[in-house]
């Protein structure tokens, strides 16, 4: 097995030419709690979160920040720990509604009846009235903008017959989406010891809402909604400040103040989940600072385009002496801003590769790592087919090997 290191010190896209890795400069020391560096979130007394750049303070008890395009985790503080998700639970209710709309099983103009249970529901409300009907579109706005518990129950009862049966659908959908640390007991996030989600599961759910249903995501950026002559503002501070285009906030005694937010700047999108803060002010301040930190310290870098020839690997007994190695898709990494100083890319494959080689066959691996760089690995494919030589050619190749001690 041959292993080679590719140095990425000059160009982002290295389709042509290679350079052997040189010793890179010693990376800057990671940020430590209490060090005053401009742009870093600093919350005195907060327990630090893990990041590729070193510990970063946050007053949130649970937190995760992920890059939407690459899935890279930029910040992790008990990201896989089960916690009370409060109204961030409503994202699953919204996801199921969007699924039904996309499948044609429901329309935005459908009018749904308001039961006594929905009308009596406490907590945040959009103030639906018993005995009336409400459009699905208004109910969506009532959930996203007003965080209406009553709106959730109207939808849950209309879709599943009861909120309890709707919770079963939520759990089934959670399994389908790979939410491994979530269990739903209601559509609203109303406190229940058995109801829990992890920050990473919430971030995953947010990713699916944005990715799977872009036609509906515009509701998340609405700052106000008026229903029944009552106008309410979106509780998400980042949406109100214009620094995010979604998704949800939450608050319970057990979970504290929480937020899941997503921001698009240029071509890059980041998803942030925080929970366990002590006040709305703290939630607003902390989410703004951490979102700015994520964009200031990392960038998405395309290492190789899908059709770029990364290497030509020798072929044993092939009609051509080598085969191009390609990724088959753009290789994108979320990297710290100083990535050129730290990134190491390693290429490995069996040398030589035995013919015949089918186009698209998996023939090698490309790995990337470095200080502040989340480790990544990709499979390399044969960029073209290489048939095996005919019998005379193979005989000559074997003879060459026997006489000269050379293969390929």
Topology:
Layout: E1 2-7, E2 48-49, E3 56-57, E4 62-67, E5 73-77, H1 90-102, E6 111-113, H2 116-120, E7 133-135, H3 136-144, H4 149-160, H5 163-176, H6 199-212, E8 224-227, E9 230-233, H7 237-240, E10 246-252, E11 256-265, E12 268-277, H8 280-297, E13 298-304, E14 311-316, E15 322-326, E16 331-336, E17 344-349, E18 353-354, E19 362-370, E20 373-382, H9 391-404
Parallel strand pairs: 14-18
Antiparallel strand pairs: 1-17, 2-3, 4-5, 4-12, 6-7, 8-9, 10-11, 11-12, 13-16, 14-15, 15-20, 17-19, 19-20
**Major sheet:** 7 strands, mixed
CATH homology group of the largest domain: DD-peptidase/beta-lactamase superfamily
Structural class: alpha+beta
The CATH architecture classification of the largest domain is 3-Layer(aba) Sandwich
- Please tell me the total number of domains: 2
How do the strands of the widest beta sheet line up side by side? 1-17-19-20-15-14-18
Strand/helix succession: EEEEEHEHEHHHHEEHEEEHEEEEEEEEH
The number of E-state strands comes to 20
Please characterize this protein's 3D structure:
The chain has 408 residues and is α+β, with helices and mostly antiparallel strands. The protein has two domains: 122 residues, D-Ala-D-Ala carboxypeptidase, C-terminal domain (Peptidoglycan synthesis regulatory factor (PBP3), Domain 2, Sandwich), CATH 2.60.410.10; 192 residues, DD-peptidase/beta-lactamase superfamily (Beta-lactamase). It is 25% helix and 28% strand. Helix 3 crosses helix 4. The longest helix has 18 residues.
């Amino acid at each position: 097995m041959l292993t080679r290191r590719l140095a990425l010190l000059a160009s982002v896209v290295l389709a042509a030419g290679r350079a052997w890795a040189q010793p890179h400069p010693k990376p800057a020391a990671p940020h430590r709690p209490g060090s005053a560096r401009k742009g870093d979130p600093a919350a005195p007394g907060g327990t630090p979160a893990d990041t590729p750049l070193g510990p970063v303070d946050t007053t949130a008890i649970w937190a995760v920040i992920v890059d939407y395009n690459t899935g890279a985790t930029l910040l992790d503080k008990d990201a896989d720990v089960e916690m009370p998700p409060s109204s961030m639970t409503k994202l699953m209710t919204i996801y199921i509604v969007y699924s039904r709309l996309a499948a044609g099983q429901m329309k935005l103009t459908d009018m749904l009846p308001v039961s006594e249970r929905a009308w009596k529901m406490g907590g945040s409300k959009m103030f639906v009235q018993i005995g009336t009907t409400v459009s699905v579109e208004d109910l969506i706005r009532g959930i996203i903008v007003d965080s209406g518990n009553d709106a959730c129950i109207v939808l849950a009862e209309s879709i599943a017959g009861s909120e309890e049966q709707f919770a079963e659908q939520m759990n089934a959908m959670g399994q389908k989406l790979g939410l491994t640390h979530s269990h739903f007991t209601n559509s609203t996030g109303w406190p229940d010891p058995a109801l829990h989600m992890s920050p990473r599961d919430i971030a995953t759910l947010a990713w699916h809402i944005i990715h799977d249903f872009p036609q509906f995501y515009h509701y998340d950026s609405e700052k106000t909604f008026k229903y029944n002559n009552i106008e309410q503002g979106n509780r998400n501070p980042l949406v109100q400040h214009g620094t995010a285009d979604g998704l949800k906030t939450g608050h319970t005694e057990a979970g504290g103040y929480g937020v899941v937010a997503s921001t698009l700047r240029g071509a890059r999108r980041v998803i942030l989940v925080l929970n366990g803060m002590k006040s709305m002010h703290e939630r607003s301040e902390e989410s703004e600072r951490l979102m700015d930190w994520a964009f200031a310290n990392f960038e998405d870098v395309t290492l190789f385009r899908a059709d770029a020839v990364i290497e030509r690997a020798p072929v044993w007994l092939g009609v051509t002496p080598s085969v191009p190695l390609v990724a088959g898709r753009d290789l994108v990494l979320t990297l710290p801003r100083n990535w050129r100083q730290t990134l190491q890319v390693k290429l490995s494959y069996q040398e030589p590769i035995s013919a015949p080689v089918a186009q698209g066959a998996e023939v090698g691996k490309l790995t990337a790592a470095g200080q502040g760089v989340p480790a990544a690995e990709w499979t390399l494919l044969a960029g073209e087919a290489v048939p095996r030589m005919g019998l005379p050619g193979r005989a000559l190749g074997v003879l060459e090997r026997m006489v000269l001690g050379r293969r390929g």
